[in-house]
Amino acid sequence: MAIYGYARVSSADQNLDRQISSLNNAGCEIIFEEKVSGVTTERPELKKLLATVKKSDMVVVHSLDRISRSTIDLLNLVDELKMKGVSLKSQNDTWLDTTNDNPFSEFLLTVISGLSQYERKMIKQRQREGIEVAKKKGKYVGRVKKYSDKHSGMNHAIHLYKQGDMTVKQICDITQVSRSALYREAKKYINGEKTP
User: Cβ–Cβ contacts within 10 Å for residue 48, how many?
Assistant: First the structure.
């Protein structure tokens, strides 16, 4: 088992020392350092970390806002690490500790996932209402493309998964791809068996 740390600051002139000191104290053997805004989807050091970790490893962060851009991003990250058999621990957010199948941590992640799904449903409802209003005003120009076959549905599912803006459940609901099939296909990309 290896313990990896991940530290990030939002710009090149900010200092990583406090996070690195904290991660060293937590026993991290290797620390991936990132100087990039959390808003961007391009986080090369995080990608390297995810490509490096193996089963039974642990990832430690100083706080969750250092590794995730949003609630959905966090849930997708936890899902991806679970698929690899890797645990995640936050030093500041002590409720998140998946190292020992912590039931409290699992409970909170379930609650957060539920809230994210609720938020997504509300967004969809507002979109539907907006479309109805646009139709009545004669301004509706089309509808979202439907994926009629299994292969294109999986391609769309992988595309959404890589974007990191939705939970696995949300992706499966939208694309009608099963969770197990998506995990199998996503794992091929994670392990480098396939390229985008």
Answer: 13
Q: Which 3 state secondary structure label does DSSP give 57?
A: coil
Cβ–Cβ < 8 Å for 55, 195: no
pLDDT in tens, 10-24: 877 688 999 999 999
Contact by Cβ (8 Å): 71, 112: yes
Residues 6+ apart with CB under 8 A from 143: 131
Q: What is the pTM of this model?
A: 0.56
Catalytic one among 10, 21, 63, 116?
10
Question: Any idea which architecture 3-103 has in CATH?
Answer: 3-Layer(aba) Sandwich (3.40)
- Interior CA angle at 52 toward 71 and 97, to 5°? 40
Query: Is 22 a catalytic site residue?
Result: no
Domain ranges across the chain = 3-103, 122-190
What count of residues does the chain have? 196
